[in-house]
Amino acid sequence: MKAVFIAYDQAHNERILEVLDHLNCRGFTSWSTVSGRGTRSGEPHYGTHAWPALASAIITIVPDERVEPLLAALRAFDEERPRLGLRAFVWNIEQSM
After folding, report:
1. Which residue segment(s) compose the domain that 60 sits in?
2. Total tally of structural domains belonging to the chain
3. Distance CA 74, CA 51 (A)
4. Is 63 part of any domain?
5. Residue 77 in domain
């Protein structure tokens, strides 16, 4: 099992939910409003007058075989609109209940 944490511009929300459904990644926890700044490029997401955009985040725990298809779909979204911002991080899950 792997944890996939996805931080993204709110404009990606519907598409990310669709890909989670399509890949049968049923369980997740989401944060509808988060702020931050990417390490490489793109605009900050601070929710301020100067930087009004905001981001969202989702964490989902998936079987190992779903990680690569999920990352591939997310990579495609990011490549279509790179300035919006989308990052995904994968961690091993040692135990669950």
Report:
1. 2-92
2. 1
3. 24
4. yes
5. yes
In whole angstroms, give the CA distance from residue 7 to residue 1. Answer: 20
Q: If DSSP codes are grouped into helix, strand and coil, which group holds residue 80?
A: helix
Mean pLDDT of the 52-63 span: 93
CA atoms within 13 A on the CB side of 29: 4
Residue with tokens 């988060």: 34
Residue 97 lies in a domain: no
The pLDDT, as a whole number, for residue 83 is 80
How far, in Å, CA of 36 to CA of 26, rounded?
26
pTM score, whole prediction: 0.89
Asked if the structure places residue 51 within a domain, the reply is: yes
96 vs 44: CA distance, rounded Å: 34
Cβ atoms of residues 86 and 8 within 8 Å: yes
Strands annotated E in the chain: 2-9, 28-34, 55-62, 86-92
64 pLDDT exceeds 80?
A: yes
